[in-house]
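Shift notes (night). Ran Imm-5-like domain-containing protein while the centrifuge was going.
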Amino acid sequence: MNTRKILLKLGATCEGFEWAADKPLREAWETCHRGDWMLWAAEKVSVDRQLLVAAACDCAELALPYVPSGEDRPRIAIETARKWIRGEATLEEVQAASYASSDASFASDASYTASDAADAASSASSSASSACSACSSASYASDAASSASARETTHRQCADIVRKHIPWDIVAAKLEKRVLV
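Came back to this:
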């Protein structure tokens, strides 16, 4: 089955589909420049939730420099999600930290940048219970960057982070079980 058919079977409909559709799957994974697209694909093929959350946390952490000084809720949300990965926090604790980070997003008077940074942390912690939140953390982290070149750099950093936590071999094994069966 070719990449286009696999992506359609997974439900891909975004610009990531157009970017990847004509590439071999391994090449698409190894050269993708968008961590949010990669987290979406990893979730769709049922990559282990802890790996998704770890990658989402690292992506969200890129946005922390944009959080106003003294606003700790986004950092705490990321830390709580990491505790969940290690079995040191419950999903309820992660959800509470995620809600608090989301509240920080709404409370942020500073800028859309600070709001996006808080949303990145909220999405990262939410990814423990809701896989679709994992890809949002990478997207919000990039949105927090103030210039187009900074956003592109953050997208690429997130893609590298995802590849570090979720190498192609893991995706390929899950893909074989999920799609090709």
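The chain has one domain: 3-178. The mean pLDDT is 79.
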